[in-house]
Structure formats: C-alpha cells, structure tokens
Amino acid sequence: MSAVAARLRDLFVEEARGVGIGEAMPLLPLGGLRAMSVTGEHVGPCPLCGGRDRLQVKPGVGWLCRGAAEGRDAIGLAAHVLGLDLKRGGDFLEACAAVLGRSVPDGRDEDEAATRERAERIAARKQAAEASAAQREGEAHDFRAAEQAKARGKWQHGEPDGLHLTYLARRLQRYIRDLPVAPFLRTIAAETYWHGRDERDPRRVPVELFTGPAMVAPFVAPSGHVIGCHLTWIDLARRPKFRPLILDPAAPRGDPLPSKKMRGTKKGGLIPLIGFYQHDGLILPDPHRPRFVSGEGIENTVIAALAEGPRADTIYAAAGDLGNLAGPADQTSRFTHPEIRKPDKNGVMRPVFVKGPIPRADQSPDDAMQVPPWVNEILLIADSDSEPYATASDMARGKARLGAGGAIVGIAWPPAGMDFSDIVSLSPLGN
Ligand SMILES: [Zn+2]
User: Fold this and answer.
1) Per-residue pLDDT averaged across 175-197, rounded?
2) Chain-wide mean pLDDT for the chain?
3) How far is the CA of 286 from the centre of ligand 1 (A)?
4) CB burial class (10 A; 0-12, 13-18, 19+) of residue 47?
5) Which of 125, 168, 288, 319 is the most exposed place for a label (fewest CB within 10 A)?
C-alpha cells in the first residue's frame, strides 16, 4: 500500500473512532430495538444472537448483549451485531465502515478471496452465536420445566380437606360449611420455608427457617397446565391474619418476611378458585361463565365471591400478585411519586418512580394473567393496604389491559388502608 493510501486509511479509522453509539445506530441493523424514553436505552433482539430483550444500547454510555458481549463504543457494537472479529484487520475496517456509513478507502490489500473468506467467517460466527443462544434458551427452558414440575408436585400432594379450610374460615369469619367450594386449594402439612433461595443463582445456599403447614394453590396457564404453585404458611394462633411471623435471621429487627411464596411460573397464569373444572389433567375455566372476578390474593377473591354469592355466571381466580394482575407498563407512562422520596447512594433525596397506568404495547400471553376469551365482564378486587399511588396505577393498567378486547372492567376498592379480608377480620363476629 502506498503512503498516501495508508494515511487515508488512518484518517478513516480515526474518524470512525470518533463516531458515537447514537450516531452509528441508524446505520446498523438495529431496527428491532425499542426506545425506552425514560432511561434513554434502546432494547430488543440482537441481530446476531436473537432473543427478545437481549441487546441493550444506551447512546453515550455503552451497549450490552446479555451473556455474549458488551462495550462502550460504536465500532465494537457494529462488530458484534455484524459478526465481525475486531482482532482481524479487514474486519476492523469493515466495522469502521459500518459506523461511518461508507466503504473502506481504496488501496487496502484485500482481494476477492479475502472478501469471500470474511463473508464465510461472518456466516459461521452468526451460526455459532445462534446455536449458543439457542442452547442458553434451552437450558433456561429445562430449568423452568424442572421448577414447574416441582411446584406441580407440591400441589398434587396437597390435602383437599386440610387445615387451609380452618384458616380460610377464620380469616373470613365464616364456618367451614359456609365457605364457597374452592376445589383446587389444598394443604401441605409440613412445608419448609427456605430463605435466601435464588432460582437464578444456584450458588446461593438457602437457609431452612422453619417447617409448618401451608395452603397450596396451583398456578394454571391458559392451556390448563399447572405451571407453578402459591404457598401461604398458616399459624392458627396468630390473629388476625392467622399466618406466622417470619423474621429474617440476618436482619431480625427488619420487616418480617412474607408468609406467602410462589414456585415455578406465575406470570401469565392464574390461581383457579371457583368456576373451573378438571379434564385430562388440565384445569379449565367453565365456558358457560361470562363474568370474571379477580384480586391479587386468594383471601380477597374468596371474600368477593362470598359477598356476592358466589355467582353461577362467574369465574373466580386470584392473580397471585399485583404485577401479574396489572401486566407490564409502558415505560413512557412512568411517573414520579408525588410524596415518597428516597436517598440515593450519595444521600441525596430522589423521587421514587411509579409504574404508569398504560399497558406496554407488545405483550405476550405469558407476561401477565390472561382472562378466557369469552369473558365479557370483569371485576378487579383492589387491596388498599399497600402504597396507594402505585396500587391505583397498577389497577388502572390492569383494567386497560384486560378491557382491551372489549370486556367491561370495573374495580372494587375497599375503604382506604384496608383490604376486604381486613374488614371481615375486624368484624365482631367470631367462630
Ligand atoms: Zn448479540
């Protein structure tokens, strides 16, 4: 190569190094990324590795392809998504060309054979990236399937006439014979409460805090398959909620640990209470019931069923938690909490963000609880013992999400600071 050509090439590289990620993005095959207006990030599938939200690009900051590669500059991003190897001179120049949007200056010492060889290498790298992404997804799938099987087993071994009936009767201030029949609720006589378990990090060693009776309910996918279970530990001696006080041994003065847990998969599933039937191992909603009533918790939803009947035209199901009821939020609808401030790591008080009321546009059925397609009327039961702004926003989002298909959706709010099961717990009636 001549000195002039070498000089031209150096300038070309220098210019490419000056290109920011934001400038390069429109020139790269990143059309599948969604802009997150609040965080300034762009998130979506990686053109090389695939996935759903695998690639995150933040102009001015850097980029990350989860589990594969990351970096801070545009050339590295271009190389990754185009399958180029920066350690090879020809590939490096191609990456520079990609971020500049023009071809490598003439005078490079590359013939047709070298160009063809690179094309083949890129194709091979893309194939390898796809294979390893598929393997990672396969492993995650196997792990999920094993967790689901364990959760299903817990529920299958539960006792239908167990202690949960006494628990519900006391919580709801009724005699057992007056409870509505919720045939899928069961009792595990001795369920261990593990603390510190992290399903994504098997290296963490969980501690066995205690073993005691628990109510177990299945989480059921729209297909009717049991994909998880919901556990509620019971302590009949502890009024008014009849659940054990569980303290974190590492922080004994902190907030108690939750006496409810979920195993397996929850998102996209629901806890069937009333108006479901079992067929071929599946749990399915009764197609003759066009109305659907659901709250976050089992207790609140059963209370609603008791208060109105239960009605023969209604399917009663619990969502398990507010996130599964409300579904994912559109990032742009996020807002700052009008009252709550929290200190950041420098001790500066910062506003707290609340998930907004608008559902995220591209949702899949396993993002949140689904309602049978024939349902035309929905009543959502709110808890108002949790943070009111976040709860109101979540409920509004659930209403918008579930009403998108045309069903009429209402929200039942208990008095401020209570949930419906508190109201009955505080009533003077006893049993
Ligand atoms: Zn990637």
Assistant:
1) 92
2) 88
3) 44
4) buried
5) 288
User: How many angstroms separate the CA atoms of 146 and 152, rounded?
Assistant: 10
Please give the distance, rounded to the nearest whole angstrom, from the Cα atom of residue 393 to the centre of ligand 1: 35
Q: How far is the CA of 402 from the centre of ligand 1 (A)?
A: 34
Q: Is the dihedral of CA 6, 7, 8, 10 positive or negative?
A: positive
Tokens of 284: 């399915």
% of the chain exceeding 70 in pLDDT = 92
Distance 129 CA to ligand 1 centre (A): 8
User: pLDDT category, 187, cuts 50, 70, 90?
Assistant: very high
User: Nearest to residue 352, comparing CAs of 340, 368, 369?
Assistant: 340
CB 391 within 8 A of CB 416: no
Within 249-405, residue ranges assigned H as helices are: 298-308, 322-326, 388-403
130 C-alpha to ligand 1 centroid (Å): 9
What's the gap in Å between 108 CA and the centre of ligand 1?
A: 29
State the pLDDT at residue 77: 96
CA of 79 to the centre of ligand 1 (A): 10
Cα–Cα distance for residue pair 259/214, rounded to 1 Å: 9
How far is CA 138 from each of CA 96, 142, 227, rounded to the nearest angstrom?
A: 35, 6, 17
